Amino acid sequence: MPLLEPKPEALRPDTARAPSHDRVPDDRAVGTPEPLRGDLMALLGPDKVLWKLSDLVRYASDASPYRFVPQVVLVPESVDDVSAIMAYARDRGRHVVFRAAGTSLNGQSQGEDILVDVRHHWAGIEVLDDGARARIRPGTTVMRANATLARHGRLLGPDPASAIACTIGGVVANNASGMTAGTTRNSYRTVASLTFVLPGGTVVDTASPTADADLAAAEPRLCEELLALKAEIEADAELTARIRAKYEIKNTNGYRLDAFLDGATPVQILRGLMVGSEGTFGFISEVVFDTLPLDRQVSTALLFFPSLPAAAAAVPLFNEAGAIAVELMDGNTLRASVSVKGVPADWAELPKETTALLVEFRSPDAAGRDACEAAAAEVVRGLELVRPVASVTNEFTRDAGTIAGYWKARKAFVTAVGGSRPSGTTLITEDFAVPPSRLAEACEALLELQAAHGFDAAVAGHAAHGNLHFLLAFDAAKESDVDRYAAFMADFCRLTVERFDGSLKAEHATGRNIAPFLELEWGPRATELMWRTKQVIDPDGVLAPRIVLDRDPRAHLRGLKTIPRVEAVADPCIECGFCEPTCPSHDLTTSPRQRIVLRREMMRQPDGSPAEQNLLEAYGYDAVDTCAGDSTCKLACPVGIDTGAMMKAFRHRRHSPREERIAALTAKRFRMVEAAARLAVAAASRIDDRLLEGVTGLARRAVRPDLVPEWLPEIPGAAARKLPRTSRVGARAVYYPACVNRIFGSPEGYSGPSLQQAVVLVSARAGKPVWIPDDVVGTCCATIWHSKGYDAGNAVMANRIVEAAWGWTAGGTLPLVVDASSCTLGIADEVVPYLTEENRELHRGLTVMDSLVWAAEELLPELTVVRRTGSAVLHPTCSMEHLDDVAQLRAVAEACADEVMMPDDAACCGFAGDRGMLHKELTASATRKEAAEVNTREYDAYLSANRMCEIGMDRATGRSYHSALMELERATRPR
Q: Do residues 205 and 195 touch, judged by C-beta distance below 8 A?
């Protein structure tokens, strides 16, 4: 063990706690038992088998209120792997559940035996027919697919609110729809073809001209029985009419029996049945969608009504006017949304009765948009709208930023309302549909029912389609609360079916919590046909038992998860998974959601239990060390949970008092540290890379990998010892060269001016000279200490840089321009909690500006571009995302290059200062997709605006990245 390896006990929860009834028992602390573990390693290889307790626990939770700990988690890479897994399970009487993004709201992605991760190795999109169709792999998120399709003016029909995280496999398997899909744009209607693996191992490509012949040869019994079921259904006129009627409104409860009516052959029937089958019929390995036009002319309004009935009455009017979306939010939903960044604070003061409709029109051209706006205006003239708070306008807008804010508030319904629930309570999200004409009646009945059972009343939904959502929060550790939930569900299901003839699941699919009520909605005849269909396709019952079909009337009460209190920053988490795609480590170790899930399991355990000890031992590396600390999870989380901040706090907890003192000393003497670092880099550039890698590798093993950086061949030589000479007289801004740019020089082989010289030169050309203070050496943005959780050192440097900046900028009269985006973020935001009250006051008077913003907004209008490069590819850093200046990076690049490309897979590189040198596997994992996309072709320039991120991308791509400011200097350099 390395000398300074931190003790796992440092992260042990220090709060008093009683063992939870749903904790992992001690006999499961060792993880996957034998012979299961050994069998599967021999079958697939050890890298595809996750068996540690921490692996099983982090996969045990999804966005639903349920929690089942699997026996093992498998990560297949190919269809052959999946076939082998199903054959193994079939031969040994085991069960298999497929899990993609884990955003399912009803427990569909949880299993008690073999759980198969079909996200990790299953992403990718191929555009067909110039975007008219797209072939997409199941692990691809909806947002990622639409980003590629947008280049062709197309998009997918399904548009669930979880598009940032949910994947195509789950969308198709649940027939998820969303804001605009309704019954005509969902997966059932827009899937052109599927490739899937049946439980027997047969692979079916429904687009193949020989698909039916191949299936008949491989599985003749299956084909015969599917056609027999079709004939039986078609012979029953009453049943046929009932099936057709059930799908006139949104309905994802049970299997798509209309597939037997719509499909003429076994393959066509299976294509329809697979949609919405929730992983119970097979594994979908590829989907070909018919895409839809991306109408870019958009006009949107958020209209406020005095009551829910008044809003509901307006819905059909907007439908008739041609609105693509009419979304409803009641007063409780609107008030809870103030927790979402960008939502007006005065919504908190809205009257309880207030209800809003988010109405959107989309058109392919300006003429169509004008016509839509005219139709909308005619509707609005006849409405009695209210303006109960100042931010309400009740006006249609074309402004993209305003529209995005409206949709952000609407899409955050589950997480914003759920995030404000009482601590320690479980959240259940229900969705149902009624005929749109009965929307108002259904809303009122629902709110009355919630109140009668003691639940906070809140409702939102896709009003245009009669599809409503609501939330229930209760304590699953209390029997009385579980009984209250059970009573509510019984009454709710009877209300929906008997009073409204509605769908118990409109778009979230049956799942565990509606399976017991399937027969209530469909009746015994149709339900029995669903059981027979399952028997025909999966005769051994291998796939996803109890997820769609379950005869236990109390099945929805089994496996309800407790939500123990954890650290305050993470306690509101509802485990929705929106954070996962943005996290640099989510394909390597854990995601933000999983870090919180693991912490909650520790809180379920009695102090010192074998399970707790095993989780603690894994948590150090899996959660704390491999967190990049970039906090992009905060941007993706609708309630702004910053799991990165929690990991930095855990790093602080692991530090000894001696380590804290040393860190504080380095801050106090940073001038010496900086000089030594530059000398070391200069010396290292003259030594063979392999020798340096060997020496640093030995040091890391002897001391601690998280303390000693590993030498990387991509690390550039040292920066010049002296900074460019500038004058304070006439300066329009103070230029602060970040310490990383004072230590590391330009990329190897780059022949132009250094970054500091480039900023000085290009500012002077624009007639806005900058001044570099003489005493910047020895100062820093404090991120070095902040990212590692060294609070004392962070406080020392945070206060020093603010005091220095106050003096340099003459009390805030000049902007402070910073040439590394992470350092801009550090000085602008991250230092604040560590400042004295006096220095917080000084900080409020500073204008901290990223060099990209300086260049794009202050310099570009005054510059003349004299040479342009052909093409440039960009790497937007996570700090740019936080600072919201990615657009400025693009603006600078577009001034310098004829063609500018932002990779669809661009994301945080995970280098995180020096973390990419401490854990190079983190950067390798984080950049894998982006690097693959970048390397599909050659570019003339590779641009970013942060030196360490550029090094990370150099390593990932084998290319040479440099600052966009350096490229701007070259583009505007006089001939």
A: yes
What is the side-by-side order of every strand in the sheet holding 962-963?
897-901, 869-874, 941-944, 962-963
Tell the burial category of 750 from Cβ atoms under 10 Å away from its Cβ (0-12, 13-18, 19+). middle
> According to the model, what pLDDT value does residue 696 have?
58
Query: What are the structure tokens assigned to 704, written together?
Result: 């601690």
What torsion do the CA atoms of 786, 789, 793, 795 make, to the nearest 10 degrees? 60
Q: CA-CA distance, 711 to 714, in Å (whole number)?
A: 9
Q: Please answer whether residues 302 and 325 qualify as being in contact, where contact means their C-beta atoms are separated by less than 8 angstroms.
A: no
| Spatial CB neighbours of 867, under 8 Å, sequence gap ≥ 6 | 970, 971, 973, 975
Q: What are the residue ranges in the chain where pLDDT is below 70? A: 1-5, 415, 689, 691-708, 711
Which residues, 6+ apart, have CB-to-CB distance to 326 below 8 Å? Answer: 315, 318, 319, 357, 358, 359, 462, 463, 464
Pairwise CA distance, residues 597 & 772, whole Å: 47
Residues 582, 632 contacting (CB under 8 angstroms)? yes
Question: What does the DSSP assignment read for 828-882?
Answer: IIITGGGS-HHHHHHHHT--EEEHHHIIIIIIGGG------EEEEEE---HHHHH
CA distances to 670, 778, 783, 916 from 676, rounded to whole Å, are: 9, 11, 19, 21
DSSP string over 202-229: -EEETTSTTHHHHHHHH-HHHHHHHHHH
pLDDT of residue 6: 75
Q: Is 352 exposed, middle or buried (0-12, 13-18, 19+ CB in 10 A)?
A: exposed
DSSP bridge partners of 155: 292
C-alpha to C-alpha distance for 396 and 374, rounded to whole angstroms: 11
Helix, strand, or coil here: 957? helix
Residue 301 near residue 394, CB atoms below 8 Å: yes
- Reference 865, options 888, 887, 890, 897; nearest CA is 897
Assess contact for 328 and 355: CB atoms under 8 A.
yes
Q: Which of 97, 34, 38, 37 is nearest to 69 (CA)?
A: 97
Surface-to-core class of residue 449, CB atoms within 10 Å of its CB (0-12 exposed, 13-18 middle, 19+ buried): middle
Task: Give the sign of the dihedral formed by CA 263, CA 266, CA 272, CA 276.
Answer: positive
Asked if residues 945 and 970 have their Cβ atoms less than 8 Å apart, the reply is no
Which pLDDT does position 913 carry in this prediction? 83
The H or E element that residue 620 is part of is none
Closest CA to 966 of 748, 739, 752: 752
* Cα separation values, 271 from 173, 495, 806, Å: 11, 33, 66
**Res 1: pLDDT:** 40
Q: Determine the pLDDT at residue 693.
A: 63
Contact 385, 356 (CB under 8 A): no
Rounded Cα–Cα distance for residues 687 and 681 (Å): 10
The distance from CA 259 to its chain's CA centroid, rounded to whole angstroms, is 33
CA-atom Rg of the chain in angstroms: 29
